[in-house]
UniProtKB/TrEMBL annotation:
Membrane protein topology class: Multi-pass membrane protein
InterPro entries recorded: EmrE-like (IPR037185), Mg_trans_NIPA (IPR008521)
Protein name: Magnesium transporter NIPA2-like
Similarity section: Belongs to the NIPA family.
GO CC, any one term: membrane
Species of provenance: Python bivittatus
Length: 356
């Protein structure tokens, strides 16, 4: 009976993770269209510290969509291990790519289609070889997990590095290096997953009739989650506003998933009882997803023309016009264009330094 219940909860978590990817993938498109509309009006951009997007209904639509997705994601962590739920977030990238082809004039070429196929294949492999986490059934046992020296060291490293990135690296390199803001989102996001897990346990105990509102740990986890999500939204907006979405999305996925898998491995010992075959399967599935995401975004604007074929195949394509992608002017979609011109960003930074 226990095994049946375990499998039942596993598939509930899987379904919630898939639903989450659908809503989160849609939110990227809505947010980007909202930011583009603000750009056309000449409003102060988020990348320069502006908050005009708070008055844009499209941006709010994206935020609501992301909220629904995150709520489904929240519930998925209650039923399934984080090492399974987090990598399935790659499917939100596929949803974003498909919707971009309809709403942002993005063309999904052969490389993108192969990337989508690889991402789905990698996700399937990860589902088959998903690890099992140690049972944590109460807030008391969750507290014992949080007191583990390994997790304490990990949390201190995350907090110190995030503070350095926000107050030291951010003002200097945030406008030029995409890794700065994404590293902040990813590292803080790994702690938010631990908070979500703990709150999920608290919700289970609440439904069982236990007075969890009297437990200080539950309130600490809730406050920590709100702070972590606020930081993630703020710096993800900055990254999306300054850099191409085709750059932000795959880098954020890889760094965030790696950070979450590391946090879960330390906190919940998810890899402790895995056999070698499942370890290889999980890692291979994750790397396959990464490869698919790379193909999906790295070659988005490269048309598959006859002159890209090997030399020994070109003689069979004489009737096909061979227009080189390097020589012809491509139509780049709104999804891939940065909202801030690099010269404008550099000029703004110079003016700020002179004023100081």
């Amino acid at each position: 009976m226990g095994t049946f219940t375990g499998h039942y909860e596993f598939y509930i978590g899987l379904a919630l993770a898939l639903t989450s990817s659908l809503f989160i993938g849609s939110s990227f498109i809505l947010k980007k269209k909202g930011l583009l509309r603000l750009n056309s009006r000449g409003a102060v951009r988020a990348g320069l510290g502006g908050h005009a997007y708070l008055r844009e209904w499209l941006w709010w639509g994206g935020l609501i969509s992301m909220g629904i997705g995150e709520a489904a994601n929240f519930a998925a962590y209650v039923f399934a291990p984080a090492t399974l739920v987090t990598p399935l977030g790659a499917l939100s990238v596929l949803v974003s790519a498909v919707l971009a082809s309809y709403f942002l004039n993005e063309r999904l070429n052969i490389h993108g289609k192969i990337g989508c196929l690889l991402s789905i294949l990698g996700s399937t492999v990860m589902v088959i070889h998903a690890p099992q986490e140690e049972a944590v059934s109460s807030l008391d046992s969750m507290l014992e997990k949080l007191k583990d020296p390994g997790f304490i060291v990990f949390a201190i490293c995350v907090l110190v590095s995030s503070v350095l990135l926000i107050f030291v690296a951010g003002p200097r390199y945030g406008q030029r290096n995409v890794l700065v803001y994404i590293l902040i989102c990813s590292s803080i996001g790994s702690l938010s997953v631990a908070c979500v897990k703990g709150l999920g346990i608290a919700m289970k105990e609440l439904f069982a009739g236990k007075p969890v509102w009297k437990e200080p740990l539950g309130w600490m986890l809730f406050i920590s989650l709100v702070v972590c999500i606020s930081i993630q939204i703020n710096y993800l907006n900055k990254a999306l506003d300054i850099f191409n979405t085709s750059v932000v999305t795959p880098i954020y996925y890889v760094l965030f998933t790696t950070a979450v898998m590391t946090c879960s491995a330390i906190l919940f010992k998810e890899w402790q009882h895995l056999v070698l075959m499942n370890i290889v399967g999980t890692v291979s599935g994750f790397l396959t997803i990464v490869l698919g995401i790379f193909l999906l975004h790295a070659f988005k604007d490269v048309p598959f023309a006859a002159d890209l074929l090997p030399v020994f195949l070109r003689h069979k394509q004489k009737d096909v016009p061979a227009a080189s992608w390097r020589e012809r002017e491509k139509e780049r979609s709104c999804l891939h264009q940065p909202l801030l011109d690099p010269e404008f960003v550099e000029k703004e930074g110079t003016e700020k330094q002179q004023s100081l």
